[in-house]
Amino acid sequence: MTADDWITPRRRARGTREELPAHEVRTALLDLLSEVGTVTATEAASRLGYSSGLCSFHLRQLARHGHVEEAPHSGGRARPWRLRQDVTAADRSSEEPFGDVARGLEDESWQRWLAQWDRAPAAWRQDEAFSAVAYLTPEEMSRVAGVIRRALAPYQDREQRPLARPDGALPVALIVRLFPLLPQTESGPDPQEG
């Protein structure tokens, strides 16, 4: 699946993204962004085998047509790009949700890890999967999410800056889902009863 597959006909009709003729470099850039999340033209050139100027040109074309946007960064000359992040909660409930795609990819990655665990280097034959149920208010749930985000913040620039990665670093899936466990509707029993 390419990033173009995520651009639903409904979005095109709403005009958030304009049609852009298919091009080998643009397709490769969208695929790369869907894989790694954020990339500079220089990093894309290194990964894809094109010149940084060509990647920069096509990233700007993709941005002009609403497919990508500049990612937040701490200044400097690096200009990271990402897939456009303009889906609101209302969009998620009314369209084919990206969340379903992301959850499917997460589940697929987890299954691949389980299938290949015994072939991983010994130091990596571990995972830190866990789950918990905590009784929280909406404000507390937001605070917990904030704590997790702050804990991960020191490591997130490594995606855009490969040279900041220590030797032996590999991409690690970090999946956190905080959501209330709502009682079942009238069609089923309330899990808090009985």
TrEMBL record:
It holds the Pfam family HTH_20. InterPro entries: ArsR-like_HTH (IPR011991), WH-like_DNA-bd_sf (IPR036388), WH_DNA-bd_sf (IPR036390). It comes from the Bacteria. This is ArsR family transcriptional regulator.
